[in-house]
Amino acid sequence: MAEFSVWAPIPERVRLDLDGTLHDMTRSDDGWWRAEVEAGEGARYGFVLDDDPTVLPDPRSPRQPDGVHERSALWRPDAGAWTDNGWAGASIEGRVIYELHVGTFTPGATFDSAIEKLDYLVDLGVDFVEVMPVNAFGGTHGWGYDGVLWYAVHEPYGGPGALVRFIDACHHRGLGVLIDAVFNHLGPSGNYLPRFGPYLSSGSNPWGESINISGPDADEVRRYIIECALRWMREFHADGLRLDAVHALVDTTAIHILEELSAETDALAEELGRPLSLIAESDLNDPRLITPRDRGGLGMTAQWDDDIHHAIHAAVSGERQGYYNDFGSMEALAQTLKHGYFHAGTYSSFRHRRHGRPLDTATIPATRLLAYTLTHDQVGNRACGDRPSQNLTFGQLAVKAALAIGSPYTAMLFMGEEWGSSSPFQFFTSHPEPDLARATAEGRKREFAEHGWDADEIPDPQDPDTYERSKLNWHEIGEGEHGRLAQIYRELIALRHDEPDLADPWLDHMRVDYDEDRQWIVMERGSLVVAANLGTDAVDIPVTGDVVLAWEDPTVESQSTTVPGRSFAILRRSQSR
């Protein structure tokens, strides 16, 4: 016998549809409905609410073979499919993470085709793979942030069985796996949760209605979120989660849901005997996120740090529009590299108010912040999804890599950046509903037209070519400057792994110097010096030592080193300052 259960406090009657046959369910006082029925693996089922004959998928569906609008299917992980018993796991702190989108990482666009590229990632030297959301969403392809059945794995990627194979293959090669999880909103196609219970609040965020995590009947909604998060780590052996836009989780309770999730994740890690990491995406610049729970924080392992991205990108590229307005100077770059946050209780011209809070660099290691020069957001949310590699020189890309990977922060790459991929990463969707498809396309064009873009230049997210253009072109990686840049990335990552001075997580141990007019900046990390010239002309930088790695050959003198324009050099001093 199989027990079927669903939390549905709203309807007066719930019936189980199992392979086309209806079965009555019994309600308990807590709003849960249950029924025990004979059912085998793969059986299709759903729920019929009140007098509406529509069969709705299970909110905790383990599999959606036919899409988010159809019946769910019974699925349980096969213990025999795992071969990763020897995987001891690792914390993400201080490691190198590689963010990828399963649907555009390879031409095959599946977990199984991604497995074919894992040896390449091992050779590159990364430690963790972070996959953009793999939960079930409407349509065949999209970014994944419009998920509506959070427990199920997107079928076009191969479904849950393929995710098992992918994570097992990663662990077999010594790669950890992080899953991007979205708990702050639900997508517009296939969201039937409000039919079952009060999953949504009266509030909203930029992506839709907010989730009810602190209103009436919020306890079960919170359990829905936390159990989903734990499922990725327990049943699929993921090594942690990236939590999307946690600033949109409006929680007015005394114990924030992130604190609760942190505690349960730590308990699961102890049970499993391996580290588990939670990485928060937040634009609040609030160090309480990454402060341990026993010191009054929420206990996240780490958080994305957009200030570091903005400071590096604006200084190298010269872009100043939008949220780059406060960045771009060498002073802003130095301040951000040295202190973690640029906005730390200071005025943000983009927000028209004070923003952030200072990071206590004496107690919070830099490895709890992620440094990157590219993410899916920072390229995909541009009007045309253009990468920095489409606008900058290879030398500028190398400088950005040296600043991020050579910093004390946990480093992250976005797929293809390591060879300066020429493929854009555009916003793409495949909503099957004509009205929603049209609204999405028109809304995208209208949004950027309001910021001065020609609407005709904005790619239609529903156009299949927009999706196809966003797939990586792997043939580039061995060609000319692409191959040279990829080699620099490999060597930077190897240095990070091999040099103890680059593993020092304390910002107070790093010295940063710069020259605003001559556009150079230096990070001194023990015996190693990362010297970068962001300008076009060669400059003399007052550091010297043996050259460890460089983009263009520097000239080392007794008191200074001449670094060519748009290049970097890493030097080893004979004695640390």
Can you describe this structure?
The chain folds into 3 domains: 2-56, Immunoglobulin-like (Sandwich), CATH 2.60.40; 95-193 and 229-306 and 372-498, Alpha-Beta Barrel (TIM Barrel), CATH 3.20.20.80; 507-572, Immunoglobulin-like. The protein is 25% helix and 22% strand. It contains 14 helices and 29 strands. The strands form 8 sheets. An 8-stranded parallel β-barrel has the order 8-9-12-15-16-17-20-21. β2 and β3 (21-24) form a beta hairpin. The radius of gyration is 25 Å and the shape is elongated.
How large is the radius of gyration?
25 Å
- Spatial strand arrangement across the major sheet: 8-9-12-15-16-17-20-21
Which CATH class of the largest domain applies here? Alpha Beta
* Fourth-tier CATH superfamily name of the largest domain: Glycosidases
The multimeric state of the shown protein is single chain
SS element count, helices: 14
Low-confidence spans: none
Approximately how much beta-strand content do the residues carry?
15-25%
Structural class by helix and strand composition: alpha/beta
Largest sheet: 8 strands, parallel, barrel
Number of domains: 3
The CATH architecture of the largest domain can be named as Alpha-Beta Barrel
CATH-defined fold name of the largest domain? TIM Barrel
Features:
single chain, 577 residues, alpha/beta, Immunoglobulin-like, TIM Barrel, 3 domains, eight-stranded parallel beta barrel, five-stranded antiparallel β-sheet, 29 strands, 25% helix, carbohydrate metabolism
